[in-house]
């Protein structure tokens, strides 16, 4: 018999979906569908980023908005590894190229996208497991407004 603290945490629905997308990307690479694999790998990473944003009570619809919010809210404000933000943006760009290009995507590019997406998923899982970094903001709390830097006049610079 196991204690409550020894049980594995319940799988997060979004994380499970991201894992399925990554598994589909692996199958596509194995079948020689490199372009489709890149797109599926990007979907997996985006799904994982959306799970991270949802933990902070934030959602976005458009992929570019997900990336932007992820970098701002999760990477900058909540101490996520900045590499994950760069990989997420790169995966989104590579998926767009794979969908729109007439040229075939090399299998090595697809394998690279799988590795990158797997890294994003693993980092988000670890981040979600750390409540100090991933806990939602307290209710009623607002983010502190960021003030723009004061512009200096040419006479003030030395």
List the helices and strands and how they pair.
Elements: H1 13-30, H2 34-55, H3 63-78, H4 82-100, H5 107-128, H6 131-134
Could you explain the architecture of this structure?
There is one protein chain. This protein has 158 residues and is mostly helical. It is built from six helices and no strands. The protein has helices spanning 13-30, 34-55, 63-78, 82-100, 107-128, 131-134. Helix 1 (13-30) runs antiparallel to helix 2 (34-55) and helix 3 (63-78) runs antiparallel to helix 4 (82-100).
Task: Tell me the strand percentage band.
Answer: under 5%
Uncertain runs: 1-8
Q: What's the order of the H and E elements?
A: HHHHHH
In this structure, how is the largest beta sheet organized?
none
Distance between the termini: 72 Å
Structural class: mainly alpha
Average pLDDT rating: 85
Task: Report Rg.
Answer: 19 Å
Backbone shape: globular
Total helical elements: 6
What helical percentage do the residues reach? 55-70%
Number of strands: 0
């Amino acid at each position: 018999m196991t204690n409550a603290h020894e049980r594995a945490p319940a799988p997060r629905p979004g994380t499970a979906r991201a894992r399925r997308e990554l598994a589909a990307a692996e199958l596509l690479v194995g079948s020689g569908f490199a372009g489709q694999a890149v797109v599926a790998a990007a979907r997996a990473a985006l799904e994982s980023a959306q799970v991270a944003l949802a933990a902070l009570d934030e959602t976005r619809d458009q992929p570019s908005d997900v990336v932007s919010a992820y970098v701002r809210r999760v990477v900058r404000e909540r101490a996520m590894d900045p590499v994950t933000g760069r990989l997420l943006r790169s995966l989104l760009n590579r998926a767009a190229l794979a969908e729109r290009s007439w040229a075939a995507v090399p299998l090595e590019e697809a394998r690279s996208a799988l590795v990158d997406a797997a890294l994003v998923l693993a980092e988000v899982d670890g981040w979600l497991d750390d409540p100090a970094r991933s806990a939602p903001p307290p209710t009623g709390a607002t983010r502190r407004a960021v003030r723009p830097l004061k512009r200096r006049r040419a006479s003030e610079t030395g």
